[in-house]
C-alpha cells in the first residue's frame, strides 16, 4: 500500500496518471464492489463513522478527538474504534498506553487513547463490543467509510479543501479510495477542513454534490504558540500531508530551517533517529514533530529513539468548527438514527 502520496495525484492530467489509468479502473471496480456489499455486523450502540474520500491526510483524527470531547460535555462516554493500521494485534484489544506501542496497535490508536478509550481490531464490530463492555455508550469509528465490517448510524467524510479530490482518479492513478459516485451515497455529511476560499473547492463541491456541508479549521492547540515562536527548528513528519504540518508550524512563528517529509506511519529506525538528532544538534535546531509521529517513538528502547523522543517537541493541534452547533447536530443525528434502527 502506498504510504506517501505521489505529487501527480493532486494535478489534473499528466502522463503518470494516464499510464496508471487501467490499474485505477480495476482498483475502483474492486473497491466499489466491496462498498456495495451488505454490512457484516451492527452493535447495540450509536456509531458515527469519520472517514475520507481520498488517501492522505485530511484531518479526520483531530476531528474524531474534537467530537469525543464534545460528546463528553453532553454526558456521553465516547470511545474510539479503529482497525489498528500498522499494528500486529489480530483480535479485539483495548489500547493501554503503558503496555502497547505503535507496533502493537498503530500510532493513531495510541494518539487517540489520550482522549478516550480505544479498541482496535480488523473486525471493527468486535472492538465496538469490547468498548461496550467497559461502559462506552457512543462509538466514534476513525476511518471505515469504505469498509462494511461495522455498520454506522451517521457518516462523515473529511476533505482538505487545499487538496480537494486531487485529479479525481482512483488509486494508484489518483487519491480516491473508491469511485466518488459510490462514496457519496454512503456519506451523510461532508466536512471541509481549511480556509473556505482555498482554490474555490468549497463552492465547486457544494454545487456538484447535494450533501450537508460543515467547515472546520485545524489549528495549533492553545499554549503551544509561544513555545515555538521565533525558534529555529528542524521539522519532521510522517503523516498523510506533511506540508500541512510545516505550514502550521510557520503560522506559529517558527523559523523552519530544515524539513523532513516522511512516509505516512513510517517507523523510526535507529539510523533515521540518529540522523535527525545529528542534524538538529549540528545546526542548533529544535526538532519538532506531530503527536502522531511522537506516538511512534513511545515505548522505543533503542538509544537513538530514546534520545529523539526526549529532545523533540510536538505541536498538538485541535479542530475548530465554524458553526458551533454542528457537533451537537452530528451527535443528535447519530443517536436519532440509532434509535430508529433499534426500535423497528
Automatic annotation (TrEMBL):
ATP binds at residues 54-61. The lineage of its organism: Bacteria, Pseudomonadati, Pseudomonadota, Alphaproteobacteria, Hyphomicrobiales. The gene is lpxK. This is Tetraacyldisaccharide 4'-kinase. NCBIfam families: lpxK (TIGR00682). SUPFAM superfamilies: P-loop containing nucleoside triphosphate hydrolases. The keyword Nucleotide-binding applies. Transfers the gamma-phosphate of ATP to the 4'-position of a tetraacyldisaccharide 1-phosphate intermediate (termed DS-1-P) to form tetraacyldisaccharide 1,4'-bis-phosphate (lipid IVA). GO terms for cellular component: plasma membrane.
Amino acid at each position: 500500500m502506498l504510504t506517501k502520496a505521489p505529487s501527480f495525484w493532486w494535478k489534473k492530467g499528466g502522463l503518470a496518471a494516464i499510464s496508471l489509468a487501467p490499474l485505477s479502473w480495476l482498483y475502483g471496480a474492486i473497491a466499489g464492489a466491496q462498498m456495495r456489499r451488505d454490512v457484516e455486523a451492527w452493535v447495540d450502540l450509536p456509531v458515527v463513522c469519520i472517514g475520507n474520500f481520498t488517501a492522505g491526510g485530511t484531518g479526520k483524527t483531530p476531528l474524531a478527538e474534537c467530537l469525543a470531547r464534545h460528546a463528553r460535555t453532553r454526558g456521553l462516554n465516547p470511545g474510539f474504534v479503529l482497525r489498528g493500521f500498522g499494528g500486529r494485534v489480530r483480535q479485539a484489544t483495548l489500547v493501554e498506553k503503558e503496555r502497547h506501542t505503535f507496533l502493537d496497535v498503530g500510532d493513531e490508536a495510541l494518539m487517540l487513547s489520550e482522549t478516550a478509550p480505544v479498541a482496535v481490531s480488523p473486525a471493527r464490530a468486535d472492538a465496538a463490543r469490547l468498548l461496550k463492555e467497559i461502559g462506552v455508550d457512543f462509538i466514534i469509528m476513525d476511518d471505515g467509510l469504505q469498509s462494511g465490517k461495522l455498520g454506522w448510524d451517521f457518516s462523515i467524510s473529511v476533505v482538505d479543501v487545499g487538496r480537494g479530490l486531487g485529479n479525481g482518479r482512483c488509486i494508484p492513478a489518483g487519491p480516491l479510495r473508491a469511485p466518488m459516485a459510490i462514496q457519496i451515497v454512503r456519506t451523510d455529511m461532508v466536512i471541509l477542513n481549511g480556509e473556505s476560499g482555498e482554490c474555490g473547492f468549497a463552492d465547486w463541491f457544494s454545487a456538484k454534490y447535494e450533501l450537508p456541508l460543515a467547515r472546520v479549521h485545524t489549528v495549533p492547540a492553545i499554549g503551544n504558540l509561544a513555545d515555538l515562536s521565533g525558534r529555529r527548528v528542524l521539522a519532521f513528519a510522517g503523516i498523510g500531508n506533511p506540508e500541512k504540518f510545516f505550514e502550521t508550524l510557520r503560522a506559529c512563528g517558527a523559523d523552519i530551517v530544515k524539513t523532513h517529509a516522511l512516509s505516512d506511519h513510517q517507523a523510526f529506525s535507529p539510523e533515521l533517529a540518529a540522523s535527525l538528532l545529528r542534524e538538529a544538534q549540528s545546526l542548533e535546531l529544535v526538532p519538532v514533530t506531530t503527536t502522531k509521529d511522537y506516538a511512534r517513538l513511545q515505548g522505543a528502547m533503542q538509544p537513538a529513539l530514546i534520545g529523539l523522543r526526549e529532545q523533540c517537541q510536538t505541536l498538538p493541534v485541535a479542530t475548530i468548527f465554524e458553526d458551533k452547533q454542528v457537533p451537537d447536530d452530528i451527535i443528535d443525528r447519530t443517536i436519532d438514527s440509532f434509535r430508529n434502527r433499534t426500535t423497528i
